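Annex B, item 7. Sequence and structure tokens for protein A, then protein B.
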Amino acid sequence: MSIYLLTAYIRHSYATDRLGLPPQHPLYRKHACLVIRDLKNKTAAAHGFGFNGYLREPMPKRSKILYKQSFSVSKNEQRIANLYNGLTSRYTPNYCIKRYNCVDHLLICLHEQGFHSHLLNYFKRKNRRWYQQRGH
């Protein structure tokens, strides 16, 4: 039986420059990813959501990590398999920094399996407030 550690990362990324975000925006030059680490087999995979939908990512480099939160240890392999299936195959609307972005995708998939990340929730709230304050 494997033991899995779930870790949310907010890392530095220039990809959001394509969106023309101002430097004050909460997701300016930031990208969220989820790392699922199998502690027994010593394997790990990073998962994210970008402009073209789901993507399997390289592991975040230490120099690019802005925030990190390990938030759950699970021995339930079926729950992790369901999480992985949700990340990779669930219907995903088009990327929209305002309505559905990397943080939203990870949160929805995590919540479907009963996981919660304070870090991702924080960035979701900051992003929503940004647009509410500007009347969007």
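Protein B:
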Amino acid sequence: MATISATLDTGAPRGVDFHRGVISGTFTTNATAPTADQIVLLPTSCFITSFTAVNQTGLGSCHIQRNINSAGSAANGTVYVRASDPAANTYHFTATFVGS
């Protein structure tokens, strides 16, 4: 289990917009699929209501669960990621959330 770092988009309306409840950016999966990883996007006071990820670099896909950490426990603001491709892939994501 590892934590994947997300790079947030810059410039409006990208990045984190607490007023609209939107966050966007990119993340790269580890090259040892299938592994359970997590992305800590927001504080635990934020509940992620939707999360979409589009592969930008390869043919791999990933299984996503919102508000779950890599251990399978509930964790607001965290995204569980399980990659299907043994190669590292970069994904662009957009998530919506409530809270601050």
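Comment on protein B: The beta strands are 2-3, 6-8, 16-17, 22-28, 36-40, 47-55, 62-68, 74-83, 90-98.
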